[in-house]
């Protein structure tokens, strides 16, 4: 029992800090398999379904309230209401501070608003929570390019392409 007590305390502390949001689903085995398939894919057409599978996993929020906030933010972005999108995604990251996709989508909404300075910290947080999130990595590379930080963008872009060589952003590689 003593050896499980620190794990229990850490788990409870994480959940308490997340204001009721449970830990995001662990898709690490599926993600590992998808990245293996992406490495083996002979072309972009074969790779595309695997990339789509990654997005399906990343867009699976930890619980129903967080999924609703994410879906509302995505709908607002698709409808061009970027202020509403940021508002819903603000609520999501407040509720689920350990869910990488909340930060990634808020960064994307700010990128679309051309508020690159606001996007960058969210991308860093998404990458911190999920270092192999190629969407956040390419988002950071694109944001850095917009900010004129091309050398740093190239480093990040190479990290993303090492995971998925078929990303559309490969055209940005120098």
TrEMBL record:
Annotated transmembrane regions: none
Q: Where are TPR repeat segments found?
A: 100-133
- Taxonomically, the superkingdom here is Bacteria
Entry keyword set: Signal, TPR repeat
Q: Which PROSITE patterns match?
A: TPR
Keyword Metal-binding found: no
Give the range the annotation lists for the signal sequence.
Answer: 1-18
| The protein's name in its UniProt record | TPR domain protein
Lineage at the top is: Bacteria, Pseudomonadati, Pseudomonadota, Alphaproteobacteria, Rhodobacterales
């Amino acid at each position: 029992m003593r050896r499980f007590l620190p794990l229990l305390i850490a788990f409870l502390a994480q959940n308490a800090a997340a204001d009721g949001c449970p830990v995001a689903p662990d898709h690490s085995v599926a993600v590992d398999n998808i990245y293996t398939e992406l490495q083996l894919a002979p072309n972009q057409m074969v790779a595309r379904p695997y990339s789509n599978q990654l997005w399906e996993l990343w867009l699976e929020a930890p619980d129903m309230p967080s999924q609703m906030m994410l879906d509302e933010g995505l709908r607002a972005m698709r409808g061009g209401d970027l202020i509403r999108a940021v508002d819903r995604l603000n609520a999501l990251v407040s509720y689920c501070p350990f869910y990488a996709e909340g930060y990634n989508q808020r960064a994307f909404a700010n990128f679309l608003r051309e508020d690159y300075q606001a996007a960058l910290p969210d991308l860093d947080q998404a990458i911190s929570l999920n270092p192999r999130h190629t969407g956040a990595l390419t988002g950071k590379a694109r944001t850095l390019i917009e900010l004129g930080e091309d050398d740093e963008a190239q480093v990040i872009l190479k990290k993303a392409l090492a995971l998925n060589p078929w990303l559309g952003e490969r055209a940005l590689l120098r």
